[in-house]
Amino acid sequence: MDKLDVERLGGFAGFGGPSARIRSRGVCAMSDLSAKDRSSVEDLLAQKVKSAPNPDEFVYRITKRTANATSTVEVPESMVPQALKNCVKDELL
Amino acid sequence: MCKYCTIVPHDVLVRLSKDHSFSAGVRQGLEKTAALDSEIRKLREQARKVTRVGLSNAPIGLAAQLPGPPNVVVYDCHHTQTLPGAPVVNPGSSGDPTAKAAFTVTTDLVRFYSQIFNRNSIDGAGMTLISSIHYGSKYNNAFWNGTQMTYGDGDGQIFVDFTRGNDVVGHENTHGVTQYTLQLVYANEPGGLNESLSDVFGSMFRQWQASQAVNQADWLIGKDIMGPAATAKGYICLRDMANPAAPHCLAPQPTHYTQYQPGMDPHYSSGIPNLAFYSAAMAIGGNSWAKAGQIWYKAMTGYGPSPNLKMGAFADRTRKVAGQLYAGNAAVINAVDQAWKKVGL
Ligand SMILES: [Zn+2]
Asked: Can you list the domains of chain B with their CATH numbers?
């Protein structure tokens, strides 16, 4: 089953930075997403370009893992479907 | 330039408008929205250009004479992620402490920029300051989206209400000032400078509100928004301008330019110029906004747009400005020079 690793980065607090003690991560199955959200995720992954966020806007690193390959993209929060935003959980290290 | 100011990105609107699972009427509506979005984007950029040209050609002092103080308005997102939300009537006397804080702290920030730097609002021309509160659910962030400030409530564990931090309010509004002045891109060295300027002016505002001299200030960023779970683990702030690598920071930072690498998150690399400002202000003494702040402000606003400005070039600007503003004051000029040398610039 295809899985998505999702990590929320940056923001005012600098989530997920090299020394940061705060991370926000989650995993979700493509099969759990609606057809519309799956299509949005595929569109984002197809971009393959790193887009600049607005200042302090979160960035989402989305990695799709299949049996044969992985592909990753980083996109500003404003482009991410709500279902993916919901799958990350903030944690202190 | 802000590429994602609107909630639904332009390419998504275009794609949806071609999606035949929607009715023809809906598709037509989306197409119109996409076209409108594109026009609004052009208009916004045009407005910024006109503002820049207008200000650069205006007789000295005219910009300050024309508009009155800016309006400060507050909107309530009611825990949705739709901006700006519903307007809050009379936020200054609201029973909602978040609405009241967003209004009163932003209003005080207007006074700070006006009295200390003779700047009228974010754009220097009296632009209305819009703050949206209660954004999202337990949302652990605050941000500037290219046109307004946005504040989450925090999850109550790691973070509390982001409007509780006057440095947060100063930080987000200063992203607006940077957008209207240096226009720094938000990546690599200019991104780190962009973040640092927001921390520098946010921290100065916090010190100004408390009438603190540099040696009385804590120089912490995010101290007042730390939640009980974070403080229980010994984290007292997000960043510490006096000691960016300190273990009491939730996000410790580098302290020397030799540690800088391209692609670093701006919230990480900003530790380098943050430490330079702290060191300069401490060596000069007194109030941070009186001399060090004046130098940083002129280096930020006195040269026009420099989107790809690197840290070293900004350092040299502050050296030059220190010599112009405080000619003959070797202590100030030397303090600025040594502060940058300390971080390897
Ligand atoms: Zn910022």
From this structure: 1-57 (no CATH), 63-164 (3.10.170.10), 188-342 (1.10.390.10)
